[in-house]
Design brief:
Layout: E1 2-7, H1 19-22, H2 27-37, E2 42-47, H3 51-61, E3 67-71, H4 80-88, E4 93-97, E5 119-122, H5 127-134
Parallel strand pairs: 1-2, 1-3, 3-4, 4-5
1,3,4-trihydroxy-5-OXO-cyclohexanecarboxylic acid (DQA) is lined by residues 10, 71, 73-74, 76, 97-99, 101, 108.
């Protein structure tokens, strides 16, 4: 089973970015733990700060992979283009967030991903990714 973890803008700074919200682990370290835990899966990780690159990656894998775990970060709240890309492909997408966006500023309560995602997992820290992967098993 092939699953892509796709992270959007500023998530390359995990570990140093607002650790009181996002924790102090880097995503690379956490990804190694996921690979160890889900040894039977082919996990791939891609991060970009650029909206078009995220859309390109969804198009690239979206007809052949078994699942996409997507944290579109700030683009969650703005990107009709990412929402349309998810609608266009056949691979199911799980929307994840590290923080509980509904407890935060009002602009984070809007998501262009939720209406086109298979499901949404948020607020469990990095464990949100683990729970999303489990949903594909
Ligand atoms: C986030 C929440 C978003 O509102 C924010 O822009 C992020 C991270 C999260 O994982 O909690 O960059 O997606």
């Amino acid at each position: 089973m092939k699953i892509l973890i796709l992270n959007g803008p500023n998530l390359n700074l995990l570990g140093k970015r607002e650790p009181e919200i996002y924790g102090s682990d880097t995503f690379e370290d956490y990804f190694a733990k996921l690979q160890f835990k889900f040894k039977d899966l082919e996990l791939e990780y891609f991060q970009s700060n650029i909206e078009g690159e995220l859309i390109g990656k969804i198009q690239e894998v979206g007809f052949s992979y078994d699942g996409i775990v997507l944290n579109a970060a700030a683009y969650t709240h703005t990107s009709i283009g990412i929402g349309d890309a998810i609608k266009a492909v056949t691979t199911p997408v799980i929307e994840v967030h590290i923080s509980n966006t509904h407890k935060r500023e009002e602009f984070r309560h809007v998501s262009y991903i939720s209406p086109v995602a298979r499901g949404v997992i948020l607020g469990f820290g990095l464990q949100s990714y683990d729970l999303a992967i489990q949903s594909f098993l």
